[in-house]
Design a protein that fits this description.
alpha+beta; four-stranded antiparallel β-sheet; 22 helices
Length: 691
Amino acid sequence: MFSDPTHWSFEAKKISGDKYNIIIHLAIDTPWHVYSQHPGGDGSLLIPAFKFSKNSHLKLVGKLKEEGKIVDENIEEVGGLVHYLGNKVTYTQEAIIDNNTKLKGTYFYQTCRSKNPALCLNPKTVPFTLEVKDAGGKADTTAQVTKEDSNINTAVALTGTDTNNKANITPTADKKAIGADEKPKAGSKSLWWLFLASLAGGILAVLTPCVYSMIPITVSFFTKRSKTRAEGIRHAIQYSLSIVIIFTVLGILISAFFGANALNTLSTNWIANLFFFLVFVVFGISFLGAFEITLPSSWTNKTDSKAGMSSFGGIFFMALTLVIVSFSCTGPIVGPLLVLAGKGGIAGPALGMFGFSVGLALPFALFAVFPGMLNKMASSGGWLNQVKVVLGFIELMLALKFLSNADLAQGWRLLDREIFIAIWVVLAILLGFYLMGKFKMSHDDAAPKNIYGQEYVSIFKLFLAIICFSFAVYLVPGMWGAPLNAVSAFVPPLGTQDFILNTKGNESSSSSNASKVAPGDMPIEPLRYVNELKIYEPPVVKNMGLVTYYDYKEALAASKKLKKPIMLDFTGINCVNCRKMESQVWSKPEVTKRLKEDFIVASLYCDMNRIELPKEEQYFSKDLNSQVTTLGNRNSDLQASKFGSNAQPYYFYIDDDGVKLADEGYSYDPDVDKFVKHLDKVLAKYKETHH
């Protein structure tokens, strides 16, 4: 337990007349810090926030400003480069106060340790009251006087209440950072990956008919209408830069309007997932040739009328015309990109759109600089439509993932594992046959013929077809319960499958546990929530006979009877990293053996909010600052209050009395050897204290 390391003081400093600066001073004990108002990362970091109650005499002007020494650290697990402030911080909010009044509100904050960013105190929300007595007249130059009250510094006219002086340690996420005194890395693996993925998406968009067919026309227009070759190159480069500017500004606007983690939050919401599913299906069917999706023609006409060669503005509107005209081809690529970019924090959408636009604009600049390449450029034709059809099949396959997310969250059982895999198998086979030329879509040209008049398949398409057929063959065993580790994070969990070829593991496991229970004792097999949650069991549970509990108290009872330590698995239904840990780590023989023989495993789903608790089990959680009404709420509260954590996956180890066997838990890290050593260390600790 740690004391709150923050010391706050508030003052309302008159500037002139009714203009004030509301100044919030924060002093933080070393080595703690708070995150900047622009924290970077993936949007999961909590920043100080100040909320003023409604007051007719108060009008806030502009945005909150912060002053202090910002420290940068690279924490790859939370999105890369993050920014925080320590020691002293000053927040300033301009305001109009037209009469003497009492300003009331709350301030919210969380502090973390600079030397170990994985340790953070529980977030706090503290009320304040600030009395203004000098409204009107000249500016007040009197010094601020403060007094200490319950570990919160407050001005003479400010009262803050914070009855809880202590806080549990909270690992806000799986964070491994360099030391505060180390030089931060220049970039982030995840952000670099986002940029490269976006760049690849832009290059892929070039191969669509809407864009590819515009390259020779546009480049020729610049080179032929310009007085000199240098002028033509300059215009083409300006055109390419305009494309980059348009898409990057779009990304910045998305960040500004939706915030750092709104898209990431949407990606886990069942309604949003259902919406994304419908969008992907519509785009996929469109790519297959059923219909064309276009923006209103009036938009194109207005931008095209402003396009010309007389100025950069005219060239910019030419680029804007391309963006609008090509929407039907770029939209299906930009859509998934924005969902992916939402996981890159506030910089994600901007960086994603920048990378996409660079890939899209690059050919226009290259062909302008090297016009001879235009002669070698493949002519537009049926192959472009084939690119669209291939993308259409991929869009339909991706759409199923969003439907699966919504299905799992709501428990509809519309898309169980074998149905999901069956559809993927069919789509992969159809795509393979399409690439082999065995069937055609409505807009396809006649297949090319060799010198003997026979239709043939290019080597490139042949290898693509081999990949598709191989993928389908790989998926087929999953219909009978194969774990499919390579795609386990994307397909529904094995628990949703109705038929599994090998179920001996479960039977042997259950009987082995039962044999250890004395006659007359209460059974130790999982009972609570099994019917509702067994569909989410990972393949290692189904295939290897690993027994898991879904209720904390049941796990304690089983631990007491079997004399084994408990591994609490705080997990989520749509948690991709949880599925990766289960498929890449749990399934390894050396790990499975230890979990089956030496541990009681309790999988506690923190997002299972469909199961409502009985009224007598509901309560108010100080750590969540909300009423606990569902099983997911209760598991989240247990993780936050007892273990000071709010990230999944996270594994904590306790004995049958709930006493921790390791000071720290184990978060997402698919290093099998490291996980095995951690389990052995916990088991040794348990044997040392219980034998």
